[in-house]
Amino acid sequence: MSTAHAHNAKAIIGEPEVVEDGSNGSALGSASTAAVEDSAAWLALKDAAIALQGLQVKDGSVPPSTDSGIADPHEVARERVATIVASMRLLAPVFPHDAEYLAASIADFERWSAEGFGVPDFYDSLVAFQPQKNRVDGIRHLVVFPMYTQNGSQNRFVEALIVEAIWPEFISELEAGDYGNKLFLSLRLVDFTPGYNTNSAVLFPETVAMREIPPFTWGAIFQDREAARFRRVVRAASEITRLDLPEGAARMLEDQDLAEQTFVMWDIIHDRTHMRGDLPFDPFMIKQRMPYFLYSLEELRCDLTAFRESVRIQRGLGARLEAGEQLTEVEAETLEHAALVQYAVIFDRIFRFAITGSRVRNYDGVGGQLLFAWLHQRGVLHWTDTALAFDWPEVPEAVVDLGDAIDELYWRSIDRPKVAHWLAAYDLVRGTLTPNPASAWARGLPDDVLAGAPKGYTDAVLDDEFPLSMFFEALEKKMRPVIESTAGIRASDG
Length: 494
Fold this sequence. Notes:
By secondary structure, the chain is of the alpha+beta class. It folds into two domains: about 5-215, no CATH class; about 275-494, no CATH class. Helix content is about 50%, strand content about 10%. It is built from 18 helices and seven strands. The strands form two sheets. A five-stranded mixed sheet has the order 1-2-3-5-4. The protein has a two-stranded antiparallel sheet with strand order 6-7. The radius of gyration is 25 Å and the shape is globular. The two termini are about 30 Å apart.
């Protein structure tokens, strides 16, 4: 803990009723959420959470002894928890919409401390946290849980965040109309502990340490981080590939707010698609063990549905505009963002997804590779004279065709055994991407595997079943420092 923040923590422990906001000297209780990230109470809470992480082990518990030289880790942990609890009490008046959750969180922390810091159980506070009921643009939440962070840390450490809703009016209208999704939350990161100084761009309830799994009522994506990564990566990739960006895509690279709202529209349609359509399987595929390229197709299906729906919205509103009809302000915003979603899906998929992460069962990587190769082989994407170009008028139809091919695979597979669906899915992918020369799947699985349990099929898939093409190998080498620099990115960094 830093010296300055240690002083703030002591003030909270000693005089919780009169702690001052270090930025302007006003009592925190009268502060607005707009300044809470600079308050003494938040800074003390954040430092205490970080210090507590140093005492926790992977499952979130605090062992009674460590090799760190701390004589009594539980005594130190109790001090850290006392600071967190006192800080949350001070901050609670600034978040009246989260009063029930904050009270439950304080109770969970106090019980965890009193019971000796075993594996934490924050079921009660998780159930009380209902941010989806307050989807108001700009509303903030204080979020404190022991949890792991997807694409970040697998340790269930205490993490603390201040987040802000991104919910413009045109998104509210979309959600109230054809794209209802009561579980979807769009958020902006304001400040956070180290678990989010990573590639993690989601806040999911299933990551929280809890005694049992409740029905989940929300799931959140940090569109500010998605947008900032997009802007940095696409800016660099377009320069490297000498791509002449369309005007709309170029505007997104210069305007973080525009990019954020575009990603909200993309993700609200993507998210609801996991549970809709002619699905041959449980839509929550992550609970199943199957060849990783199946996840590639499912994520790509959802993205291409967002693309297809954006094309439909653009054409519908565009036709009305061309007919001389006056669009409302919200409809005009929707029309603008429908065009931008299409650029976002294509460029994020081919420039970031395809080359981010390792080559060990990288399902997002395969999805990005597949989209690029599909467009190239249909003559609407060109890599000629070391420059990338698109035939933009023909691109929407080609992208929608790929989405249709995946939908057809799913529809037909309703009548197929599971492993037959897997084989058909592999054929779809290898019809465009070249498999690894060592692939058993490409050569044809032997009869003992074909007649055996599904586990044999999955075990036969190589970690890098569909290696990068020569184009992506060259691009990845040049883009590697840019991709690495986006870990922990904030909106202001984009």
